[in-house]
């Protein structure tokens, strides 16, 4: 027999209410959440939600993955544009637009970790005839 101090708190599972809440999460026009956050918000373990509502949970997860991919693409595009502007600025000041010189002007210097941003730097240099 278990000690009373180690008993788990059992929460009754309200299937209809939980399904409605999951559907609301899926249809919300807010920033999509990962299933771990949804489960925490609803007060159930993620595995319980997946067991009872696998399709809804997969749909919520798919929306989150889609949102994260779109966010990443937008972030990279923004970094590329910022790099192009910085190259023009540095070049007009008579300074060679090296990665170090450009990164000092960027809001997020870590952008150069992405190869598309580095490619944008090379393309911007080509535009001002500094690279073949």
Task: Provide structural commentary.
It contains six helices and no strands. Helix 1 runs parallel beside helix 4. The protein has helices at residues 15-27, 35-42, 46-52, 54-92, 99-103, 115-127. It is mainly α and 132 residues long. The protein has one domain (15-127). The longest helix is centred in the middle third of the chain and has 39 residues, at 54-92.
What key phrases describe this protein's structure?
6 helices; 132 residues; mainly alpha
Low-confidence stretches: none
Beta-strand content: under 5%
| Helix proportion range | 55-70%
Number of strands: 0
Provide the structure class: mainly alpha
In total, how many domains does the architecture comprise?
1
Net shape: rod-shaped
Mean pLDDT over all positions: 90
Q: What's the SSE pattern?
A: HHHHHH
Could you give a short account of the major beta sheet? none
Rg value: 24 Å
| Structure annotation, total helices | 6
Distance between the termini: 78 Å
In short:
The protein has 132 residues and is mainly α. It contains six helices and no strands.
Layout of secondary structure:
Blueprint: H1 15-27, H2 35-42, H3 46-52, H4 54-92, H5 99-103, H6 115-127
